[in-house]
Every structure is written in structure tokens, then in C-alpha cells.
Amino acid sequence: MLEISGIETSGAGVEAIEDVYGQAIRNCAARLDGDDPRFAAEALQDELARLARAAERGVVRPRHVLVIGGAGYVGSVMVRELLKRGYATRVLDNFLYSNSLSLEGLYDEPGFSLVMGDLRNPDTLDKALDGITDVVLLASLVGDPISKKFPDLTRSVNQDGSETVFRALEGRGIHKFVFTSTCSNYGMRDSDEPADETSELKPLSIYAETKVGFEKFILDNVDDADFIPTILRISTAFGLSHRMRFDLTVNEFAAALARGETLDVYDKDTWRPYCHVRDIAGAVIRTLEAPEASVRGEVFNVGADENNYTKAMIIDEILKHVDGDVRYVEKGSDPRNYRVSFAKIKRVLGFEPRHSVKAFVPELIEAVHSGLYLRSAEIPGYYGNYDVREEAAA
Ligand SMILES: NC(=O)c1ccc[n+]([C@@H]2O[C@H](COP(=O)([O-])OP(=O)(O)OC[C@H]3O[C@@H](n4cnc5c(N)ncnc54)[C@H](O)[C@@H]3O)[C@@H](O)[C@H]2O)c1
What we know:
By secondary structure, this protein is α/β, with parallel strands linked by helices. It folds into 2 domains: 1-60, no CATH class; 63-393, 3-Layer(aba) Sandwich (Rossmann fold). It has helices at residues 13-34, 37-57, 75-84, 122-129, 144-149, 151-169, 206-221, 249-258, 277-289, 292-295, 311-319, 343-349, 357-369, and strands at 2-4, 7-9, 64-68, 88-93, 112-116, 134-137, 176-182, 228-234, 236-238, 262-266, 271-276, 298-302, 308-310, 325-329. Strands 5-4-3-6-7-8-12 form a 7-stranded parallel β-sheet, with helices on both faces. Strands 9-11-13 form a 3-stranded mixed β-sheet. The longest helix has 22 residues, at 13-34. Nicotinamide-adenine-dinucleotide binds at residues 69, 71-75, 92-97, 99, 118-120, 138-140, 142, 157, 161, 180, 182, 234, 236-237, 243, 245, 248, 385.
């Protein structure tokens, strides 16, 4: 007979339970090495609460995270961070941009598995969810241009498909569900005050509309969910990734000027917050390990106050490292202008990004100069969300 944390069990399950509890405690102890002790303690508290619920259901298993969209720009970095952290990790992805390359080298990694397919296919989703304890939903058509080019597909994946995923989690003993939304939801702000999580949302594209729509769906259904949903509104990403994207402002500007191209910059004084891909992975992991009371049904902006930049400020950073030809043009097609406050995620989750735009710019310039992205001209589709693979778009 084993009794831990008020749970009693006996028979064949005992060994498995001892294994799982042992793993939780070992993981927590390992975290004491690098993390703030508060986070290690909270991670243990959350894991014990999860195990108590799992034992009530009679199915106790170690943490196994499904990352839907894990082959993308953010996902391919996040999956590696999750594996490093000791989580078994599965990717569900339909390689919309022929981006399977981002997972090469991971395929035979212990703890890693892949289900190739579309999240909208019920059989595929069922297979992907088998044995899973937590789900991170990244997959969507990401960005204003691609959503404008494929409006029906965007609505079908980002709104209807996401709702299908949410409903499919019910009754499976899922612990956490993390949805990556976007700070683009704030659209064009009249005020210079940074937007917080309660600020009005003004989606200006189909991309942001569908993100706002699914956020609303989550918040309307959170009370009935038998798992813990959290919404992360993420800043525009930057950083190196196994699926690099050069259609994101910092990456695009720095790479173009490093290659000696003339760069047209629209609406140079518009503000936007930025966040490094590794920090995005960190925020997701922090959410997966936080106590239920801190994250259930909560919305968090993800980024850092000091990474709010205007486009002109980013150019100034880049021109400190390379000479470049920049033409400023007024009134572009993207009117988004917003500064964002990251006080809540810092206060509630103690989360603070470790990477800055300032430090990353010279890193990317060096990577371009070293020849790392020579092939980006040959296979441009891989390096940004410009067009989709026909079969995947059906
Ligand atoms: N990149 C950013 O600047 C940024 C900013 C804010 C929020 N986000 C959010 O982060 C998440 C990831 O963004 P990203 O930059 O990695 O995008 P990405 O386009 O690089 O990755 C999306 C992944 O989802 C997959 N996918 C798309 N439709 C699918 C479907 N129907 N079934 C299965 N897989 C599918 C794609 O193949 C791709 O691997 C998105 O939810 C996005 O809204 C990103």
C-alpha cells in the first residue's frame, strides 16, 4: 500500500506511481540548480496536484506534451527546450510550408515522437492525443499576409480547427492547455499607454480576428473544461530557429541589411513589442509548471517592456553593426501600432525574458555573413510564411 499526498493505491499500479512521483521529485530537484527556488517549488506543487487528479481517474502517467505546430518557427525551438527539460514531447504538424526539415535530427531523440497530419482531421488528432498529458497549440496560419492570401483556410484552421482541438481534450485526463495568441490583437492603439491584458482588442487582420475569436471561445468554455486552459498573447518573435522566418520584422530588417539589400521601411514610428523564440518557449514551460490558481483561464502578455521598439529604433540598432541603405516610406499597408505592458506575467509567474533585440541583432548579422542562410534565396518558401503546400491547404 502506497500513500502519498492523501492518495491511496495498491496492486500493480504502485510501481508505476512510485516511478512517476520519483520523476516529479527528481525533476524538481534538478530545477533547484538553475531556477529561482520558488519556480521549482511551484513546479513540484503543480505536478503533485496533477498526479493526485490522475490517481483519482485511475490513470497515472508521466508528463507527455503534445506541441501542435511544433515544426514551425517557434515550435521547433520549443520542442527542443521541452525535451531538454525532461518532458516526453510529441509534435503534430502538417508541414504547411514543407518545413519538415526543422525536425530532422530530432526523429530518433529519446522522448520525441511525430504525428504528421492536419489538426482538423479527427483520426489524426485522436492518434496524436493518445497518452498525452498536456497540449500546446501553436499551429495556425501565422501573420497578416498569409491570412489575407488564404482567408478560408485561416478561418478553418485558426478558429474552427482550434475549437475542435479544445473539445477533443475533454475526458482525456489532460492537465494543461496552452494557446499561443498574439499581441497583434491590440491592433492600433490611440493611447501611448502600454496595453495590458484588459485593454480593448482591435484586430486589424483575419489572423488577429481568428486569434481573438478563439480566445473568446476559450474564455467562454473555461469553467466547464476538465483541464487548465491558459492564453499567452505573444509579442512579435525574433531569434534563430530550426525553421527560420525572415518575414518577421527584426529578422527581416537585420538579414536584408546584412546582405547589403536596400530596405524599404513603412511607418517607421509605429511601436510593437518583440520577444525571442527561446523566451517564448520559456513562458510556455513556466505556464506548464505553474500552479492552477495562477494560470486557469488567465491571459498573459508575453515579452519584456524594454523590447518595445519602433521600426526606426530597430533600424538604428542594426546600423550600429552594418552600413545599410534604408528608405523610409509613410503609410504602409500595416497600420498596427501598440506598446504592451508585461507587468502581469512578471508579477504572477515571475517570468522575465532573457534575450534582447539589442543583443540578437549582431548575432543574426554574423550568422548571415557566415553563410548560414545561403539557401534562403533558393528555397524562400521555407524561410517565411509566403505560400502554402497545396496538399496541406486542402
Ligand atoms: N512568430 C511570431 O512572431 C508570433 C507572434 C505572436 C504569436 N505567435 C504565435 O505563435 C505560434 C507559432 O508561430 P510561428 O511563428 O512558429 O508560426 P509558423 O507558421 O512558423 O508555424 C506554424 C506551424 O503550424 C503548422 N500548421 C499549420 N496549420 C496546421 C494544421 N492545420 N495542422 C497541423 N499543423 C499545422 C505549420 O506547418 C507550422 O509548422 C502561432 O500560434 C502564432 O500565432 C507567433
